[in-house]
Amino acid sequence: xxxxxxxxxxxxxxxxxxxxxxxxxxxxxxxxxxxxxxxxxxxxxxxxxxxxxxxxxxxxxxxxxxxxxxxxxxxxxxxxxxxxxxxxxxxxxxxxxxxxxxxxxxxxxxxxxxxxxxxxxxxxxxxxxxxxxxxxxxxxxxxxxxxxxxxxxxxxxxxxxxxxxxxxxxxxxxxxxxxxxxxxxxxxxxxxxxxxxxxxxxxxxxxxxxxxxxxxxxxxxxxxxxxxxxxxxxxxxxxxxxxxxxxxxxxxxxxxxxxxxxxxxxxxxxxxxxxxxxxxxxxxxxxxxxxxxxxxxxxxxxxxxxxxxxxxxxxxxxxxxxxxxxxxxxxxxxxxxxxxxxxxxxxxxxxxxxxxxxxxxxxxxxxxxxxxxxxxxxxxxxxxxxxxxxxxxxxxxxxxxxxxxxxxxxxxxxxxxxxxxxxxxxxxxxxxxxxxxxxxxxxxxxxxxxxxxxxxxxxxxxxxxxxxxxxxxxxxxxxxxxxxxxxxxxxxxxxxxxxxxxxxxxxxxxxxxxxxxxxxxxxxxxxxxxxxxxxxxxxxxxxxxxxxxxxxxxxxxxxxxxxxxxxxxxxxxxxxxxxxxxxxxxxxxxxxxxxxxxxxxxxxxxxxxxxxxxxxxxxxxxxxxxxxxxxxxxxxxxxxxxxxxxxxxxxxxxxxxxxxxxxxxxxxxxxxxxxxxxxxxxxxxxxxxxxxxxxxxxxxxxxxxxxxxxxxxxxxxxxxxxxxxxxxxxxxxxxxxxx
Length: 739
Known about the structure:
Blueprint: H1 2-14, E1 17-18, H2 23-26, E2 31-35, H3 44-55, E3 61-65, H4 67-76, H5 81-90, H6 93-96, H7 108-114, E4 119-123, E5 134-136, H8 139-148, E6 156-157, E7 166-172, E8 177-181, E9 183-184, H9 186-193, E10 198-200, E11 203-205, E12 208-212, H10 214-217, H11 221-226, E13 231-236, H12 250-261, H13 266-271, E14 275-278, H14 291-307, H15 309-319, E15 329-330, H16 336-339, E16 342-350, H17 354-363, E17 371-372, H18 374-386, E18 393-400, E19 403-410, E20 416-425, E21 429-440, E22 446-454, E23 458-466, E24 475-489, E25 492-512, E26 516-534, E27 546-558, E28 570-580, E29 585-586, E30 589-590, E31 592-601, E32 603-605, E33 609-621, E34 632-633, E35 645-646, E36 655-656, E37 660-673, E38 676-688, E39 700-711, E40 714-723, E41 730-735
Parallel strand pairs: 2-3, 2-13, 3-7, 5-10, 13-14, 16-19, 34-35
Antiparallel strand pairs: 1-15, 4-20, 6-9, 7-8, 7-12, 11-12, 16-17, 18-19, 20-21, 20-41, 21-22, 22-23, 23-24, 24-25, 25-26, 26-27, 27-28, 28-31, 29-30, 31-33, 32-33, 33-37, 34-36, 37-38, 38-39, 39-40, 40-41
């Protein structure tokens, strides 16, 4: 998201913001632009503003509600229509309208968690959560508004302190009254105006609990008139009124209830509008934030305004100007904090414990750091949320002469972070996974992660992580797994194993960075086999209850831009482990050594087509290789059913292979439309009981074709494949994130 902001400001610096000439100096009428609410449909406002600028219409007042307040507020501080167009196109709205953390500022473990669960929310226990009240708390929206309004984040008079006088509307649910913002903090006012009830948490200011202004005044032309507007140009994005035949489902009824309640003052305000432009948004809804939808909505707004070009030009005469008039051009905003460092005179900490303040000062060396830029600002606020467990974190820059004072403000501290994931596939059927992150209020931050999975593979896991000011995060984990695994041989089910696995691991060295994760630790495993069911011809594998101690060194690197459908970046993982049953040997013989690695790169050609070569393998050395740690292949993911599992195109089930296995895969990924992907994989592999015999074995070859639709609940799609090992096609269906 930060990159998007930098791109936007680069555009701003090369463009110009339309400032408006004081109407009294030219003897003309004051002109107001009124922008209605409508969620994503409000993107059409930008297209209308483009045409008004092209026609040379001055804008002396802007009022808006909900999305209209966002577009209008940014316009009022100097963003012209082209800058707004660029801004909304570069945003990752799938991130902005959720409470997810920015993947580019998360550690690998945090990124993995975000791509496992479709729902995450912060909880508080023992006291009321004043930030609750909505499915989405809106912290990413608040942060975006804070960044876009840099220079206008303190309490201001919207009439005199902004480039264009501005007002927006919210609704106080305490007494169902209309609240009109003419002053205050601009980002907070915009956030309150668009707080859709139940969807977004309300904004609390004093004794007011504020939600979407559309409930009381979705088209605030009356406010523009009160501010002195003599000519009103209004833009609305509501669809045609619904009739009884349209009420065919729950969502249509809820939509109608909202539309009816948003009719307050609507007809009266239309009556005082000089030029009303109602954009056709049929086919799109309040949540239509896809790139294609945004492009279409902006275009529809522009096309509608162009159809009214003669009316717009005629309006110039009523305003009192002719074709030779054009608004005065001012220099655009250039918030230095987004493009260069600013000198800091001091740091102020709000709503934080002394321990939290001391933690941040020491981690970022703030007592010696005398300047701040966007990168440091993002790192500090991310640490406040990730390391110190604050639900919201804000960094404000207050000018003091030529320098700034940095104000770091925190919201409530999290007591529990709840995660929920659901998936279905044709191998495991339904599975549910729930996670709880429990921060502990200690001088050195400590977090507890509890995970419970229900399904064919049951699992309960606890993890304790210390967050010291140093780069490492020592971790202690304990897990119980109850597995029910089908083993196949050349495509035919050979036997089924049901077993319990108890596992504990201590990781004293755990460097968890943005793209890297490096771990060194000691692990204990106990395998308790419940039963084994096989065919008469099943491979004879002797299973006995046993425990193991192993030493592990791991490194993971991931710079891919998308967890499931990357278009750039690389992924690399490597591990060495030494397995014993008494810390030194295995059954009185040298222990088993394991070396495994995988590496993938993404190369995008033409914007939608991506090639992804991947190389991977696992080599086992030692006299004894316990069956529980033997090589297995099959499926789409590493370590899905068992830890040592490796994917292989064309094989859908899990099959044992020899102790030395190396493979190469080439995947072609084609994005055919928004979130729709077609993938084709071809893989080849060599296996052998000894490394020197790898090239002597028959080459395994597999092919696979897949279609996936990437949803907020995870990938949904199907794969069909074939391999020369199984010699039969297979079909695999998947719904949801992998876990």
